[in-house]
Amino acid sequence: IFIFCTNLKASDEIITYEQILENPADLKLNLKYAKQESDLGNYKQTISTLERLNIIYPENIEIKLYLLSILVQIDSPQQANTLINDIKLLKNLTTEDLQIVLELEAEIDERNVEKLWSVNLDLSGGGLYSDNINSVSKRRLQNDTDTVVGFNKAKYDRTLSGDINFSATRSINKLSSLIFNFSHGDSEQYNETDDDFESYSFTTAYDTEIIGHNLSPYLILSKTDYQEDADSFSFMYGIGGNTSLKDKYTLSYGYSYIDSKNNNNSMDLTADEKNSITHSYSFGLDRYVNDIVSSSIGFGYSDSDAKVDDGNDYETYDFSIRFNFTFPWAFISLGNSVSFNDYKKADTSINSKIIRSDYVNTFDVTVTKSVGDFFPILDPNRNLFINFGFEKLISEANIMNYDYITDSFSLTFSKTLNLY
Fold first, then answer.
1. pTM here?
2. Measured distance CA(15)–CA(8) in Å, rounded
């Protein structure tokens, strides 16, 4: 692999991230920092720095070649091929530079021929604590067939969960790939059994690029086995896509069709009344601010039609905003979303005089850190992550059953293993 060093010399001087923040456009300093992080194996920081320099100095062929060599080194063919196409369009591209690009392109092609498949195993597990596991109303009262009764379910509870995902990716060409994913999850609730279940799912998707748009049509089959409730099945297909708008914006969009079914059993004789067909549409705009800050806003609409209309048919309108902070010491994500749920018919089993309407506000914070940053011996490659999450959900409704507040805390560990 050709590694472009941009005439950098070895030095004992350690460049800190704070120095980079103070001098984000200092070409020499940033290139030294990129090489320093590359030598340490911190390719994410290296790529992030070089991509920022590429935006600041768009005509600098040396930066592009250095970035290209790193992308080839970490085996990122899609990003590398996109950069190769950009480099070939440069007016100041010399014969020597073109020869380097062609050699790297040939290496990518050779790898794709030799390794058409990529296989990964994702493992995760953790726990969640909630102060209102059953969405008990604020007044601890609820409507039941037009009468007011006590809402006496437990509020505080813990849930343990674990997931295993096996994915295989088949490269089709430089711009397309086929993905298969099998997953299994297990959830166990401490005091009650509502969240005791096992889940199974199969996903296949085709990723490709057409006229500057990254498109991914997909199909998902899933099954959830509840310990003391009806089993549920879903069939889902759709398409997601995104395209770049200038240098710092990405427009995303998607559509999905979901067919959900529930089996009746001795614990739930009316589960199939919620069998439904749902159409969902989404739009989003992501913005790259700098190496540390990025943001996104999203809009969504869905329409669900159930077997029994009463209390089950509804439309949802969503708006969300999120800010991501990629600090050297941790990744932090903050999000806030608002959902408006408008039901189409009153639920006679709850309140026959009022058609339900909800407003739900959800705020969440996630902090992700590599375990290897604390214990290098346990995680030398820094691919075992610890994730801490907090979520606050406030539901306001015109029926007291759905007026509630829930705070939940989660702690999970996740790891990805490359099997092939």
1. 0.74
2. 14
